[in-house]
Amino acid sequence: MLQNPNPAPAYYQQAETLLVAVDCIIFGFDGEKLKLLVFKRKLNPFAGAYSLIGSFVHPSESTTDAARRVLFDFTGLQDIFLEELHVYSEVDRDPGARCISIAKYALIRVTDYHKALSDHYDTEWVALDSLPELVLDHNRMVADALQRLKQKAQFYPIGFELLPKKFTIPMLQRLYEEIFERSFDARNFRKKLLSLTLVKPLPEKDRTTSKKGSFLYRFDYKKYERLSKKGFQFSLFKI
Q1: Domain that residue 218 falls in
Q2: From CA 182, how far away is CA 173, in angstroms rounded?
Q3: Is 145 exposed, middle or buried (0-12, 13-18, 19+ CB in 10 A)?
Q4: 3-state class (DSSP) for residue 62
Q5: Residue 12 has pLDDT above 70, yes or no
Q6: Are 56 and 143 contained in the same domain?
Q7: For residue 28, is pLDDT > 60?
Q8: Closest C-alpha among 167, 145, 161 to residue 218
Q9: If you average pLDDT over residues 3-10, what whole number do you get?
Q10: For residues 236 and 192, is the Cβ–Cβ distance under 8 A?
Q11: CATH number of the domain to which 85 belongs
């Protein structure tokens, strides 16, 4: 029998095993509320309790690949905003096993979400202001992710990743109010937004809330990319 010509050094063989997981904080916006996609665990510990959506990392994949796999399995979506948040490595964070979690947050358009997967995985959208107690340190992850979202949304147009491609200005304002947990003056918000010349008016109206309706807009990503290369910084207000 042939022997492995490059056996692992002894210090690898003697190392204790620990698990690596990814947990995804998946934000969505339904036009009124900023929401989080959660599900009820099927396995112990904490079977039946609310949890973020995650998975152990497979030996053949990176943590980013693992997160993308989880997102596709649970939402049916690809090519969505995904960013690493933090590593959670407290020794006693998971009573099931010694497990390090790499948390990543994602922004998806609720209108693109594959509803059939909700029934399959028993997932549900929960408003952040009525979030239930989650397992392990998942509530801390959500709080950290929301703080990161606030920081990013102040200087980058990532909020548009949560909106339909066609949106109204009141809808955009409502999203920012949800993210930053504060109200904005409608007139000033509109004036500042339009002064950036990054939203293109469309010859269409959204009449779902009134007969008069509100004009629809589209974010001009190409123009933003051109401007950002010249040092332009997106900002709708100052905190």
Answers
A1: 163-229
A2: 11
A3: buried
A4: coil
A5: yes
A6: yes
A7: yes
A8: 167
A9: 66
A10: yes
A11: 3.90.79.10
How far is residue 197's CA from residue 185's CA, in Å, rounded to a whole number?
Answer: 19
What Cα–Cα distance (Å) separates residue 80 from each residue in 58, 72, 162, 210?
21, 10, 10, 32
Final residue of a domain: which of 90, 121, 154?
A: 154
Domain membership of residue 223 (yes or no) is yes
**Least confident stretch, 124-133, 168-177, 208-217:** 208-217
Q: Are residues 170 and 218 in the same domain?
A: yes
Q: Reply yes or no on whether the pLDDT at 70 is more than 50.
A: yes
34-40 and 123-127 beta bridge pairing: antiparallel
Q: Which of 39, 33, 102, 32 shows the shortest CA–CA distance to 75?
A: 39
Q: What is the pLDDT of residues 193-218, one digit of tens each?
A: 999 999 999 999 877 776 677 899 99
Reported pTM: 0.91
From CA 209, how far away is CA 216, in angstroms rounded?
A: 13
